[in-house]
């Protein structure tokens, strides 16, 4: 993959290792290694997600750090991983479904848009956006029930800020009680707003990631172009092709992912807060008759004004940026490990 590195008058090009599409992957290796790698990522970021969830359902607002310290002080360090087993059980099949939908859609849409005469940069952005949208919608079929159960476990605790009226022994117990109280539809409480939250967020994220990568590579190209001009003035030889090493490629991917993740977090934060309330706090208070989105918004505004919709923004921003960075670097690394022909990637 060659990207124009600077202004039009520069002949400098950056040679980046070829992208790996669905047909180039060893599927069994891809899913097996993916389950292991993303389980590690989930374990690392889980405490941040728990703190964000506690903030969203709390009646009073505390900072993310104070919330975390309060949890450790009153409930112990293990409380930061409450519900993790349930979350991990669902994450593995959800991630597999997400990755399969993402790669198949991206490969097919990318090929179709290029055949229609769409320029390669625009085709890549369109393919990434459509792939992110379809992957998020497919994965929510698994993620929503897991979210409902794991979030119920997250918010229960001995500290007063945990206002969950129902107590659960573990994920299986929570699953059984939700089914007994609300029926199967209780596991899909907030499914609609989850789709509204995550599908556009993923579309924006993947499209932004594609654009951010080209922007960052362009900046790197400008740097090398200016450096090359200085070398020419000193009589050094000129090499029009830049071949970045694997560390540089990974760094660019990480920075691009963090930028896209931060923007997505800011845009979708109110929807995420409403979704969490629907799935956890307000759902339990209303029993079988689930609350509407309008009722949930009114409750939030009554508690803290419109800024209450942004409770947990700090942890979510950090979580999404860190998650995006670790996810994309892990994901790209996973694809290279799972490629059928390693020699063709150079």
From TrEMBL:
Q: Which residues cross the membrane?
A: 30-51
Q: Where is the signal peptide?
A: none
This protein's GO CC annotations: membrane
Cite the repeat ranges for Solcar. 27-108, 123-215, 248-337
What is the membrane topology listed in the Swiss-Prot or TrEMBL record?
A: Multi-pass membrane protein
Q: Which InterPro entries match?
A: MCP, MCP_dom_sf, MCP_transmembrane
Recite the UniProt keywords alphabetically: Membrane, Repeat, Transmembrane, Transmembrane helix, Transport
The protein's location, in the record's own words, is: Membrane
GO terms (BP aspect): transmembrane transport
The family note in this entry says: Belongs to the mitochondrial carrier (TC 2.A.29) family.
Family matches, as PANTHER family: MITOCHONDRIAL SUBSTRATE CARRIER FAMILY PROTEIN J, SOLUTE CARRIER FAMILY 25 MEMBER 44-LIKE
Name by which UniProt lists this protein: Mitochondrial substrate carrier family protein
**Annotated organism of origin:** Theobroma cacao
